[in-house]
Amino acid sequence: MADRIHHPRIVGFLAVLVWALTTVSPAAADPPCDLFDDIARCEGGGGGGGGEPDPSEPPYYFEPWVYRGVCDWSDALLYERLKIWTDGSGLVEVERVCVDPGEGEDEAWDELVEAIEALSDPRWESSPDNAIGPGLTGLDTWLWYSGQTQIGPVDATWADPVVGVVFEVQGRAWSGELAWSPGTGDVIDRSVTTFEEAAEAGGSKADPVETYMYEVSAADAGHEGGYPVEMSILWVGEWRTRVVGGVWSAWSPMPNTYLDTFNGTYDVWQIRGVLTG
User: Fold this and answer.
1) Does residue 267 surpass a pLDDT of 90?
2) Domain co-membership, 53 together with 76
3) Same-domain status, 35 and 152
4) How far apart are CA 100 and CA 254, in angstroms?
5) Which H helix or E strand runs over 110?
6) Whole-model pTM?
């Protein structure tokens, strides 16, 4: 007799194969059910029961789901409950379910997206500052990003619909890539691989993270209103989970990303030498 395995979707955990084999009643089991404390103990169908009782079966009840460890072929969690017949036949049917708390990742990502969207929009930050004075050819333009580059951890919960066990979920996100497009076809980008590294990823006016030198004025390049510039942040994230009150899993990367961009103009003037004397 084989179990029917319930497998919710998981991202970040090892993928799990799901199968379902025909379930027969304990009386028809072949080979005979194993004896456990002088009671015939048979493996039955998993998946939560429910529905109308089978008239060919005697009355029964379910005991609560109990955590039994990790499924042999995955990182999923193994839960078991007993289906006990109440007519004195002494038969006990075992139902097992492998629970992957992967859907909790979606809950965490939704919380992170909400937090990202609540941030101020990114800006083109440079020195010279176009609002004060234009950029100049032949000199380094300093670039940085002073906005937030880390979010979280944020908390969420997810409950398996079959077993009903509640999982705590945490997610955190950071600026995985900061990119400045100065309007010349070039891209200056900076990658950040960990949440901890993102704390200082944007730099500051006193300590800019990138520089760019314009060779041609905006007007000479055909941009009378200034170079069409862009600043973008590609947010990435990771998550972890645990049964409420249990031990946290390791942080796992999320496949989701969120791109936040700013588009504007940046005027650049040509430096011209003047002879004197």
Assistant:
1) yes
2) yes
3) no
4) 16
5) helix 103-117
6) 0.72
Q: Is residue 209 part of a domain?
A: yes
Task: For residues 171 and 183, state if they share a domain.
Answer: yes
Q: Is residue 5 part of a domain?
A: no
CA nearest 240: which of 165, 156, 114?
156
Total residues found in the chain within this entry = 277
- Cα–Cα distance measured from residue 189 to residue 210, given in angstroms and rounded to the nearest whole number: 8
Is 148 a member of any domain? yes
Mean pLDDT calculated for residue range 124-146 = 92
CA Rg value for the chain = 30
Distances (CA, A) of 27 to 4, 31, 86: 18, 11, 14
Residue 233: exposed, middle, or buried by beta-carbon count in 10 A (0-12, 13-18, 19+)?
buried
**For the chain, what is the domain count?**
2
Per the listing, tokens 């955990």 go with 13
Nearest-CA neighbor of 21 among 1, 42, 49, 50? Answer: 1
| CA distance linking residue 49 with residue 81, whole number of Å | 11
Per the prediction, the chain carries an average pLDDT of 80
Q: Among 70, 64, 66, which Cα is nearest to 79's? A: 66
pLDDT of residue 19: 24
Instruction: Note whether 224 and 159 are within 8 A (CB).
Output: no
At 59, is the pLDDT very low, low, confident or very high (cuts 50, 70, 90)? confident
Q: What is the pLDDT of residues 157-177, one digit of tens each?
A: 999 888 888 999 999 999 999
Helix (H) or strand (E) holding 175: strand 166-181
Same domain, 131 and 95: no
- CA 256 to chain centroid: 6
In a domain, 256, yes or no: yes
